[in-house]
Structure prediction request, 429 residues.
Amino acid sequence: MTMRGKGYNEIELKRIISVRSEDIRFAKMQITEAEENKLNGIQKYPADNQSIILSSYEYCFKSGLALIDAMYSLGQSVESLIRHFNRAVDDLDKSYSRDDYNPKNGMWGDYEALLEILSWGILLETDEDTMRKIAAAIFYHNTDDALIDFLLSACNIGWQHHTTKYYIPNPYKFLQDIILAAQSDKVEASRLLETYIKKKWRSDDGWSYESAAVAKILGLDDSRLKANSRYPYELSHYKSARGFPIMYDASWFEKIYTKQDGAQRLEKEKEFIRVIESDYNDLSEQAFYEKYRERFLKDLFPDVQSYHLYREMHHGTILGFLLVNALVTDGYILQMDWKDYPEQYLPDFINERLETDYGIEAIDLGNDVPEIEDVEMYDNKYVKSLQKMLKRIGFRLVWFILGNDQYYTAVVPKTLRLGKEWKGINLHY
Prediction:
């Protein structure tokens, strides 16, 4: 058995395999105990038995992924990993309850785990029933992501969701360039694939299973990556030597290619703002909440009572708060946490807005990691450099200051005037 790739420690990989195997065994014992307790009406722990069962299956799934990854890195045959893959999918399938389904359940913290199991399914060319289990979990957890949409669209299982958003733009959005290039020039697409692995993929993130899945679907020449320590070449060529037997859904491309005129998009958002403002003033709290609950309110307030309390406490600024979050839902405003790094999200967001709304080709915004500064995000040197570049082409960033631990920004024409305050909230240019 020969280890795959470079930089892997054999002793550490064997330790991971041992630990994760034991973790799964122990979690399965917890599941058995909780199921027996549930059947007999016994409650031994603060968490209810059903919650213990679901969380234990989730733990088994994530431990199973780590186990598969370590086994592959160690050099075990792909065939020997299939049963572990199937077990991980079964654990994923049992990690959530269909009874509490809500289209906005949200992620339980691991987009990349779902992307990885999906990529493995494609690379193994697993059966449709197994892929449907993976798709059902992705749907349940509301993984709104263009890359996942593309991968599932290739599986011939009736996946209908298509978005232009990327849950983690850096580095995954770069794969969009590869996919689009492959429609007319597979040589160029193969070159971009190599660039992705060597320059875009983070070397400490292990195997890039998703890029291999994309290459397999598109039938790209990945021979130059055969010896790369982060590209799972052997796995990408498991079963069929080249290509993917099922063609991808063209609707993905139709969605990606759809562009709006910038002026039209801006007017659309302005009209949306006017309607919300009018409804806020004219409708009862109950009627307003019900009208916009599915659109964006339920992500902020679980029920009308919590909406009422917030409205009472923040009557002077709530309208601005609602409008900003509505535009976040529309993708017009980017929301970032105070702990986020602006270089991870801002360049992709800016270029997406410029390309999609204004038909302006992507501009080079640099990829240097800025020095950590103890200042507000909109005042750090990196963001200011972005502002200067945008100003040269007639745009700027406007920041909506809501007084919480989130940052909200939009790309707007330099000529757009909003003042220093907007609907009760402060602005920063």
